[in-house]
Amino acid sequence: MKDETTTTRVDGDLEANQGPRSFGQVMPVDDVRANDDGNSEVSVKQGPMSNSRWYLKLLDAGVEENGIRPVPPEERTQTEYNELFTVFFTCLLCVLPLFFGMIPLLLNAGTVTGFTLIGSIVSGQAIAAVNEGAHISVNVGIGIADVGPATVKSVIGYGSLMAGYFMTFGGTASDFTAYHSPNGSNLKVFTYVYLGLLTPSTPLLILGAAIGGALPNVDSWQTAWDSYGIGGVLAEMLKPAGGFGKFVLVILALSVVGNMVLSNYSVALCLQMLLPIFAKVPRFVFIIVTMAIMIPMAIYAAAEWATSLENFLSLIGYWAGCFDAVVIEELVVFRKMDYTTFDPRIWNKWRSLPPGFAAIGASLVSLALVIPSMDTTWYTGPIGKHIGDLGFESAFVVTALAYYPLRSLEIKWSGRV
After folding, report:
1. What is the C-alpha to C-alpha distance for residues 33 and 172, in angstroms, rounded to an integer?
2. What was the pLDDT predicted at 112?
3. 220 vs 117, higher pLDDT
4. Which residues contact 101 (CB under 8 A, 6 or more apart)?
């Protein structure tokens, strides 16, 4: 049977072609064309996938059908805002923060040389001599003296890594509130999300710092770290517990699933926004493709996993600085905290949306200071060499400064916010 195609004029009424749909009714975008007035004509085609049994079974199993289409207000009925706490709490209640807690000591390990080394020996000897009855060896004394020495450079570098760890949620947090009622308290939403991020991370970061401090003083832990990274250290720590320790280790290993679920959820949305044709592709397809690419990349990066993660998060932190500066300034300065200025009815009308030149331009301008301020294993700029990695701070400040004049010119040129 020939597929039936209907064409709907999107002329500002979101509900005209975006309204609630009955179960099993799939309306993928077949074609998107912009008219002279900036409106779009969307051809909605009932293709083979909409009638396929396996696809309907996926929907029945709970697979979300909606993609980048803005959710109409009448469909945003969830009022259980405490779910946001659970979402982010489970995302970060995993082994990942343990490694981040260890990073300050690991980064600092390469800088403790020369007089610091001599000072450690002398301090260790002094600690060992304090109480001979305690049987504290010089080696243990050196370990006590060495735990925690931090340079300005390592502290600044760790700050950039933490920015890459936390602030990237600024670009994805709204993905998980799409079905919540917009009439709820802003403070309540912020509190649940903030506590969801902070509560699991803080104790795990502290625990990671404790493990990192003890690492040089426990030979078996150091050997495990050299062979298997943080997983090896955890296995060695749980070894005295026998079979139960192995069970706990498996649970810890699987704890990252919650983190991966949130990431893949947002990745699918991001990929659908790249090109209009991608809106036709079901989101779960993007997740499968992403996993297929990620697994071999993870296997390759595992050989130098600590370095790979550190470099990746540094770069993510630079991007987060640019992104967050633009989002905050756009909302606070140009839109006066008025969320109604974000009109969901023009989401697919590129002629009615901001061109984006100001955001791109401001981000590019920031590179003039970001690059000299970098301090990574593969490149160190002149500023980063002496002070530490200031890439995130540079990206945020310079982007914010450059965005105001560029955005003002863009508004004047385009005639719209």
Report:
1. 28
2. 38
3. 220
4. 204, 205, 206, 207, 208, 209, 210, 211, 212
> Residue 388: its pLDDT value, please?
84
Cβ contact 380:110 at 8 Å: no
Arithmetic mean of pLDDT, 97-115: 55
Q: Residue 360 and residue 341: Cα distance in Å, rounded?
A: 21
Residues 301, 292: Cα–Cα separation, whole Å:
15
H-state helical runs in 348-390: 357-370, 382-387
Residue 61 has phi, psi (to 5 degrees) of -80, -10
Query: Span 38-63, mean pLDDT?
Result: 60
Task: Please determine, for residue 365, whether its predicted confidence score (pLDDT) is greater than 90.
Answer: yes
Going from N- to C-terminal start, the domains of the chain cover 5-65, 113-148, 300-417
pLDDT band (50, 70, 90) for residue 361: very high
Pair of tokens at residue 143: 């370990």
Q: How many other C-beta atoms are found inside a 10 Å radius of the C-beta of residue 338?
A: 10
Does 97 or 20 have the greater pLDDT score?
Answer: 97
Q: Do 403 and 365 contact (CB within 8 A), yes or no?
A: no
The candidate with the shortest Cα–Cα distance to 174, out of 34, 407, 344, is: 344
Q: In what side-by-side order are the strands of the sheet with 40-45?
A: 5-10, 40-45, 29-34
Whether the predicted pLDDT of 38 surpasses 50 = no
Q: Which of 64, 78, 73, 79 is nearest to 19 (CA)?
A: 73
Residue 258 — φ and ψ, nearest 5°?
A: -60, -40
